[in-house]
Design a protein that fits this description.
Blueprint: E1 6-9, E2 13-18, H1 34-46, E3 55-56, E4 65-71, H2 74-85, E5 90-98, E6 105-115, E7 120-124, E8 132-143, E9 147-154, H3 161-168, E10 192-200, E11 207-211
């Protein structure tokens, strides 16, 4: 079993890099999950007997890469869940999108409606019955010939939010055929990476910043 790329680790929390095409938690018929990799890593490193506790705090879509944070204790899990719920965790993403948005930076608001049968989220400009408000901020990092690299700050946490909102701006993420990209990428990847998480540590109160590093496609 390959060891996960560990980005942060202490007695309470552990963060690892999720590869595009990998699930956070085990799913039938899917490759080895990041959760299983991290459990194995902890078991081997600390020579733990029996089952390893690992609390899943948040998730990334299977095609998305980047930072995933787990709790190593139930106390840390409970407190991190509250930090996420209270939006006290800052989340930044990097995306490579088709075309270019109208502005180099903006606060974008949409109203999202889920279709669970299709596993699809539709973004509307105006509020309607059954929709949820979704907001993100973006800034352009680089204009390329036919695409743009954006830094995105996620202000709400809706299913497929970034994918749906960027598609609604006419800038679908490269590789994201579900939301308008013209062709798939290997491993069912899309060019969206969870780039950075920052928060106050749930036990010590110290500010923690966890970064994924430069995306493999950052200069592609």
């Amino acid at each position: 079993m390959n060891a996960p790329k560990v980005l942060f680790e202490d007695n309470h929390l552990i963060a690892a890099f999720k590869k595009a095409g990998q699930t956070v938690q085990p799913e039938p018929g899917k490759p080895l999950s990041l959760e299983d990799e991290v459990k194995h890593y902890i078991k081997e490193k600390y020579q733990k007997l029996g089952e390893v506790f690992l609390g899943v705090i948040h998730r990334l879509d299977m095609p998305v890469s980047g930072v995933v944070l787990f709790a190593r204790t139930s106390k840390a899990l409970e407190r991190m869940n509250k930090l996420f719920h209270d939006r006290e965790v800052q989340k930044w993403y990097i995306a490579n999108v088709h075309g270019s948005p109208d502005n180099d930076n903006a606060l974008v608001t949409h109203y999202l409606k889920r279709d669970e049968k299709r596993n699809f989220t539709k973004a509307f400009v105006n509020e309607a019955q059954g929709t949820q408000k979704a907001q993100l901020e973006y800034e352009v990092l680089l204009h390329k010939k036919n695409s743009t690299i954006l830094k995105i700050k996620l202000l709400t946490g809706r299913k497929h939010q970034i994918r749906a909102q960027l598609a609604a701006l006419g800038c679908p993420i490269i590789g994201d055929t579900k939301y308008g990209s013209d062709k798939p990428l290997p491993e069912h990847a899309i060019r969206l990476q969870s780039a950075e998480l920052s928060f106050n540590h749930p036990i010590t109160g110290v500010e923690i910043v966890i970064k994924a590093g430069e995306p493999s496609w950052g200069n592609a």
